[in-house]
Fold this protein.
Amino acid sequence: MTTITVTPNPFTLVPYDVEEITALLEEAAALAGISSGVDISLTVDEELFAPLTGHMSDVVDGRVVLWISGGNFEDNKRPCHFSADQARVDLSVMMLRAKDRLSDDFAAAPPDAQLSRGERAAWDTYAVGRAGRLGLDMRRPRQLYDFRLQHGFTDVADAAFERCWEAEHVTWEGIREICKETGAADRGPSKVPVDLLRQK
Amino acid sequence: MKKMLPESELARDERFVRTNIEDRLFDPRGPKVAQRNTGPARMGVDRPAAGERSRSLMHGIFVGEIQALEGAGRTCYDFDDETAPFQLKLDMARQCWDESRHCEISVKLGDHMGAEIGEYTESTFLFAAACNPDPVLRLCGVNRALEGLAIDVFNSMKDFGNESGDPVLEFCEDWMLADEVTHVKMGSDWLRRLTATDPERRERALEFQRTVDAIFNLGGFRGEDDENPIQLARNFRRLAGFTDDENDSLAALARESTVQAREMAEAASAALHASAQGS
Amino acid sequence: MTETTKPRAPFAPWDRRELPGLFAVEESARRVGNYKWAEMRLFEVLGGWVATIPELDVKLMLGRHTYHHAWHAELWHKRLPELREMNPDRLTVPPNDAFVTFMDAIREPEAPELTIEKLVGVYRVLIPRFIAVYTYHLNGTSTITDAPTIRSLKFALQDEFDDWRDGEMLLQSLIDTPEKVERAGRRQMDLERLYLVSGGIAGPGSLGEPVEEVRVS
């Protein structure tokens, strides 16, 4: 039996519906293949709006702990309004990454707040590519641009992106290898904390 | 076809969704976010949501270019030969072509970044500057204020392209920047020529420009500090014919606008807090 | 070693240009003034329409073409003083009132759903006539005395051909139902009748001998 908790409940700044989000989260967990019995908690920061987007997927004591900006759920065409399509996409990517963390392949991966931007971009690409193959409407050019921002606008980076996007199985070591290959690993630490939006 | 088209009648296909500044101003999340550290406003690969913020800005540039094209086009049409000299209309026609290319470039850059046409809302307040019935005031609003803003935006985007190692962005922004400098020069030249014997009209035009500039500062959108996403491009502005005094006063106006935005956010936040305690 | 003192003919054997032409200075200037007036009215309306057209490809094309026609107007504006007209505005006139009526009709559509009507007027009626009247002038004027006009005509014609093709292709892609075919046909017919009454961009005789006065009820 899986317990899903969504915070806040209820939303007070935006008209988002906890039940709808819970249902979408269940759907995303099933799509990602999260075993039943794994508890999931999702915190939505309803103060944030698009384009201040971002999300994090961690596993703490066997529980999936998720955080997402309210901007990720926002319909770009109708500010303050919930977009189920957008939420479905982002929750699925988050759950795929959570599934990775539940496996031995990513046991050594640090929490999302400690990942470098390059590592995160590579891991996201791996998750977004899989989400697309699972039938979700993912936008490759968008992911490619985000990847290039962190790995460079080079042929080496594009080839690495291609591998991440197409991969069915990547490990944490694989992600780190990709960062070495593109040079992202040589970049100094980010001047801005990667979880800045999460910090209130 | 009538003269003077209101901004509400700008024609768009079904992908475009229009919004207005009030939507954002009265968004209850605004004051909350204003009190938080969401990272440097200046564009950079290290700031949170760098990709999404770039896409959103690029889409804003795209719709801004459409409106600049429409504004220049309307100046060709709205005035008779006596009100607007032939050469002025020729300049506006040239600007139509330039803005048309900028639209094309922005679409391609949007593709490059993974944005889609109509993905974000469009605010038509830029076109509003192109609705003034006096051609001199319109030129000041469009060619000096709006196109001046374009210089700042393109320079900031060019810097971002350089910093992120994105050769496509840097290349395109540099070309667009060259055009915008030309457009501002046109505005400055026509202001001088058309008001050479009418200082009162010149002052009115400059006042209109200051009003438009204040709107374009958009509550801290443009300025010279890290909290301004778009940086004032003093050197390119100088090339375009703005004097140092003009740049200084624009910078002061931008600082004022940033402070006002901060104060408004604090006031709104206090009001929200008070109403939450009362309920 | 090149022989520098050997006389050569001023015209190479393949240069068949001749002195006589159809137009005297005054007539050439009159026509050029008419061209400038028509090009001005055209670039103004193209610019004005940009904001009223929802189709992005059409919108951007008009932005480009606005400049082409403005540039033609500028070419004619600069040519007029060279044709002894020191006050270019004096000759920057329509050939007659009927042509004004025709141009007013071309410029009339405004609503966003009237893109076909806008484009038919420009690309199926007016620009083909620019091509015709410019070609007539090009073929008829003296290739030696009026060479500067010929050079401008060639530049303008190149744009007209390119612009006509751009506009016609967009029209073909927009006209996708029998109803739209009829709309386009009706619009073209209405405008052609008005054009006929005017006699053309340079008035009666735009393409040669004046035609007989035509009455259209």
Q: What stands out?
A: The mean pLDDT of chain B is 87. Chain B touches chain C at residues 1-2, 5, 9-13, 66, 69-70, 72-78, 81, 86, 89-90, 92-94, 96-97, 99-101, 103-104, 117, 127 (CB under 8 Å). The first helix of chain B runs from residue 21 to 25.
